[in-house]
Amino acid sequence: MNDYDDVMCQVRESFSGLRMDLPVEKVFAASRSRRHRRLSGLTATAVAAVGAAAAIALTLGGGQAPARSGSALSTSALTTRPLSAGPGPVSLAAFSVTSGPGGSTTLIVRKGSQYQLAPAALRQALAQHGIPALVTVGSFCRSTPEPAGIGQLLSPLTLADGSDAMVINGQAMPPGTRLSIGVFPQYTRMALTQDGAPLSCTSGSGQPAAHITPSNTPIREPRQ
Amino acid sequence: MGHEQDEFADFYRASRDSCLRAVTAVVGDAELAEEQVAEAFTRAWTSWGKVRRHAAPRAWVVRTALNLGVSWWRRRHREVPLADHDAAAPAGLGDVVDPALMAALRRLPARQREVLALRIFLDLDTETTAKVIGIAPGTVMAHLSRAVAALRRELPLASTDTNAREVIR
């Protein structure tokens, strides 16, 4: 065992700065939320029709919809499965991703201190719907050059409860592109990025930020 | 319920960092590891009556977190992040953990990383590590020996003290 001590100590010390800040209250809340979802699962089928209708309404909103809209969407519809075929819905505390008609995908990002968005989870959920994405919280990344076509890709809306809802037409994404999603406390920013192109990221405060890029390459160059 | 909640809270606060480090060492992505560990702790609280009686509750959390990663991989039918042994360290992690060390860890087979993580971050002995993973104690020792040897070969810092002493002398 002593033969290993030098290496094991080195590994231990190297990880000593890695800490988990998630408060235990969040763990309790997630557990409660899971129990609640299980209990409410019986009503999901009845609500599904509302979800499908809402998704259709969002899709018909047009590809050039402004960032803010008077349209409202029932929160209860956000965690239901629309009637169309496609990947199953992924519903987490801070977001939901559901399949919509015509191959579209509806993304809801909920706002509020009670929601803690996990970028990797959202990235995975979108990938399951065929949408490659770069998700950052508290910052926003763009590529140079920036591909055109974002207007045909997204129909963003702000719901009555302040949540951001976006209908994403994944089939309109140009090949070799990725959807950059920057989640901030008050808003969500989106852009198309070109795979392999240099990325610049800015935080809400204008401070530099480092993120995980699609190629797992650190980014440290801010751009305002 | 209040007592159990306090008990779990104490367990969580005392264990979360070491569990995160262990899972990060295996999966190589701190962000993904944190999600998996958080989910594993949620499940631990849901099954606290069972987990609290486990021989090594922290190991239960780590194994659950790692199994979540495996489930995700099976769902996605794609490679786990560490499958690309030559990939650069994810951003953010490089600020905390020596990138050369992370790269060396990524080049180890998954089982060796897991043994190393359980021994280093959870301080499990050979017997408990073997039970947790479900392999023979001798196999644990073999994995540990190979992992340490590989890291020692790849990490100049691991022998820095010895070299320094030789230079000084």
Helices and strands, with pairings:
The complex is a heterodimer of chains A (224) and B (169).
Chain A: H1 5-14, H2 24-40, H3 44-59, E1 90-91, E2 95-99, E3 105-109, H4 119-128, E4 133-137, E5 139-143, H5 150-153, E6 154-158, E7 164-168, E8 177-183, E9 188-194, E10 199-203
Chain B: H1 2-27, H2 30-46, H3 48-51, H4 57-76, H5 93-96, H6 99-106, H7 110-121, H8 126-133, H9 137-154, H10 160-168
Tell me the number of structural domains of chain B: 1
The number of helical runs of chain A is 5
In whole angstroms, how far apart are the ends of chain B? 62 Å
Tell me the span between the first and last alpha carbons of chain A: 53 Å
What do you see in this structure?
The complex is a heterodimer of chains A (224) and B (169). Chain A has one domain (24-203). With 224 residues, chain A is an alpha+beta fold. In chain A, a hairpin with a 5-residue loop joins strand 6 (154-158) and strand 7 (164-168). The model of chain A is unreliable at 42-86, 88-92 and 205-224 (pLDDT under 50). A five-stranded antiparallel sheet of chain A has the order 1-2-3-7-6, sandwiched between helices. A three-stranded mixed sheet of chain A has the order 4-8-9. In chain A, strands 5-10 form a two-stranded antiparallel sheet. Chain A starts with a helix and ends in a 21-residue tail after the last strand. Chain A is globular, with a radius of gyration of 20 Å. Chain A has helices spanning 5-14, 24-40, 44-59, 119-128, 150-153; strands spanning 90-91, 95-99, 105-109, 133-137, 139-143, 154-158, 164-168, 177-183, 188-194, 199-203. Chain B has 169 residues and is mostly helical. Chain B has a single domain (2-157), classed as Butyryl-CoA Dehydrogenase, subunit A, domain 3, CATH 1.20.140. In chain B, 75% of the residues lie in helices and 0% in strands. Chain B contains ten helices and no strands. Chain B has helices at 2-27, 30-46, 48-51, 57-76, 93-96, 99-106, 110-121, 126-133, 137-154, 160-168. In chain B, helix 2 packs across helix 4 (57-76) and helix 7 (110-121) crosses helix 9. The radius of gyration of chain B is 17 Å and the shape is globular. The termini of chain B are far apart. Mean pLDDT of chain B is 79; it is low at 71-91 and 158-169. The interface between A and B is large, with 38 and 57 residues.
